[in-house]
Amino acid sequence: MSDRSHHRVVILGTGTGVGKTHVTRALARALRCFGDAVALKPVESGGDADARSFDEENPFLPTPHPGIALSHAVSAHLAAELEGTAIELREVLQWVEHQEQLLALSGTTLPYSFSVIETAGAALSPLSRTVRNFELARALDPAVLVLVGPDSLGVLHAMTATLIAMHSLGRSPDFVVLSTPGRDSSTGTNARELHELGICTPALVLGHNDGDATDLAEAIFARLNR
C-alpha cells in the first residue's frame, strides 16, 4: 500500500436483489471526487455480471474479478459446495488486500483511496457452513458498513430484523441506504416510515434510474475525517 489514506466501505443487504450493486457502483463513482475508488465483488454466484458492471468504471481491472466466481445462482455457500469447493475467509481477505495493493500502484497522487466491497447476498447469508457475510464485514474492519434495503414492501420488517441481528452480533451499520430495484405501492414512503417508526434514518434513497450517491459519499468522507 502507498502512504495515501486508504478506506474500505463494505456494502451489505437486507436480502438478495435489494439493489446493492446499484448502490456500490454509484458510491464508488461518487467517492472518486475525493480520491481513487475501486468497486470490488469478492464472491459472486450466478455468474459475473456484478463484477463486470463495476469494471466498466474501475480505474483498473481487478484480477480475477469476482475473486470467487460461482456459476450456480444460489447462496454462495451452496454454490461452492455444488462446484466442489469451499469459500475460505482468509482467501477472500487476501484477494481484497491484493486488489487494494493494485489500486495503490495504479492510482493517482490524490491523498485518499477507497475500496467499495459488495458482499454476496444478504448480511446474514452464509459464505460457508461457519462464515456469513457479516463475519466477512467484521474481518474487513476498520471499514464503513453500509446496509442496503429495497424501497419497497417488506423493508420495514427486513430492515428491523437485520438491524437487530447486526446489533446483537456486535456491529451495526454506519449508514443505511434504500435502493429501488423495482417500484410498488410503498415506494417513496419507506424512508419516512423507517424514520418515523424509529427504525433508522436512511442516508440516501437511490432510485432505479438515479446514479447520484454524492450525499452518501460526502457523509462517509465527513465521518472518516471527523
pLDDT < 50 runs, ≥5 residues: none
Q: Helix share of residues?
A: 25-40%
Give the overall form.
globular
Task: Give the terminus-to-terminus CA distance.
Answer: 23 Å
The SSE string, one letter per element, is EHEEHEHHEHEHEHEH
Mean pLDDT: 96
Please specify the SSE layout and strand pairing.
Elements: E1 5-13, H1 20-31, E2 36-40, E3 43-45, H2 49-55, E4 68-70, H3 76-82, H4 89-106, E5 112-118, H5 133-139, E6 144-150, H6 155-168, E7 175-179, H7 190-196, E8 204-206, H8 214-224
Helix pairs in contact: 1-8
Summarize the structure.
It is built from eight helices and eight strands, in the order βαββαβααβαβαβαβα. With 226 residues, it is an alpha/beta fold.
Which labels suit this protein?
two-stranded parallel sheet
Q: Could you explain how this protein is built, in words?
A:
- With 226 residues, this protein is α/β, with parallel strands linked by helices.
- Helix content is 37%, strand content 19%.
- It has helices at residues 20-31, 49-55, 76-82, 89-106, 133-139, 155-168, 190-196, 214-224; strands spanning 5-13, 36-40, 43-45, 68-70, 112-118, 144-150, 175-179, 204-206.
- The strands form two sheets. Strands 2-5-1-6-7-8 form a six-stranded parallel β-sheet, sandwiched between helices.
- It is globular, with a radius of gyration of 17 Å.
